[in-house]
Amino acid sequence: MAQLWGGRFTKQTDEAVKAFNDSIGFDKRLYREDITGSIAHARMLGKQGVIPQEDADAIIKELGKILEDVEKGALVIGPGYEDIHSFVEAVLTERIGDAGKRLHTGRSRNDQVALDMKLYTRRKTQEISADLRELLQVILSVMEKNTHTYMPGFTHLQKAQPTTLAHYIGAYFEMFLRDCSRMKDCAGRMNTCPLGSGALAGTTYPLDREMVAKELGFDGPTRNSMDSVSDRDYLLELLSALSITMMHLSRFSEELILWNSNEYRFVEMDDAYSTGSSIMPQKKNPDICELVRGKTGRVYGDLVSLLTVMKGLPLAYNKDMQEDKEPAFDAIDTAQSCIRLFTGMLASLRFRTDVMRLSAMRGFTNATDAADYLVGKGVPFRDAHGLIGRLVLYCIDKGCAIDELTLEELQQISPVFEEDVFDAISLETCVEKRLTIGAPGSAAMEKVIDTYRELLNNM
Ligand code: ARG
Description:
By secondary structure, the protein is mainly alpha-helical. 62% of the residues lie in helices and 5% in strands. The chain has helices spanning 15-21, 24-27, 31-47, 53-71, 84-96, 98-101, 109-145, 165-189, 209-215, 225-230, 233-259, 287-310, 325-347, 353-361, 367-376, 381-398, 407-413, 421-424, 427-432, 442-457; strands spanning 150-155, 158-164, 192-193, 220-221, 267-268, 350-351. 39% of the residues are buried.
């Protein structure tokens, strides 16, 4: 296949060099963006009189057909071409002759590929935002049903204070909501059009960069042509945002793996989202969660790869930058499939609310409330803390919960205990009295849920 730059060369490229250099194998997925960008460029060249209008018209028409042909499989993006840009130009020229050869006037593959990647990233950012919105919707519906589902909250993975399932997974709602806003931020910041920057120093043709930017839905053209062709910040931002999302998914996965274990039994995974063992017939494994947790490392790796590629690169374009694509595509594909699979898995999860409740009643999750009860009776908090500590020791010894002791036993620790202590440290009271903003009490939680509902409706 003829190269775009053959004129200066007297020898064929070495086969191994060609294979090493070509990017068609992975940049072919940019065909839609490449063609869309070329159509905008051709339209502008025609309007500015840089190329004859009839050539511009022929190019635009044929590029439309090429896109159609690729999409319906009539035209296969085969190997042999150097990259997607060479492929599109070669097919175009083959089909319409000289007019096709005029398309690249006032353009370099450097601004072309920068444009393609921005268009692609922008589209994917929108898709991922929609995927995250779906996930938020599923989390919200679990929350709505579980404002009174009591369960233990943990610190150091030890039972700490009681909370509700709505409150617990509401924490993940907040995380994924921040992820959505990070997607929006990076889509907003990257939305300037590099086309017209040429190889690095703009061009002498009277290009209308505003026109192209507008046609392609950008806020405007980029302002420095050197930066335009060598900026990969938007990919790094996206990959860091995706890494954070993966970190959140991984934490949630770890949580569900624990909850699904024989020891916790807080959840039951749907058969459709679990797999079995080839040897142990009793097994039903939480593979989706484990894979999501595992793939998190892969997305971090993509981010670090790209950061390392960019580190120390002088201005402007360097071929190193071709190495942006595989990690970027891999991170996008991986994160997107993880969000989607995780959402389906979560939607089909069964929560064992009875087991959660029992667990909350064990493990002294009401010890803080027992101390607070004494504080209410005038005992200084530090003393109350010490007294309840002794009470806990007594209970451990006896093998019971604080609220299973008799009033007499309680009074042996402190005479200020009265009959009302039992109500004060019941699981219901412990949760429902926590009414500060952001706390699990159902009255506080309902307000937060209303806010979430509204946020989702406006997203
Ligand atoms: N395949 C190249 C890339 O992905 C396109 C840009 C080529 N530019 C060049 N000056 N060789 O970066």
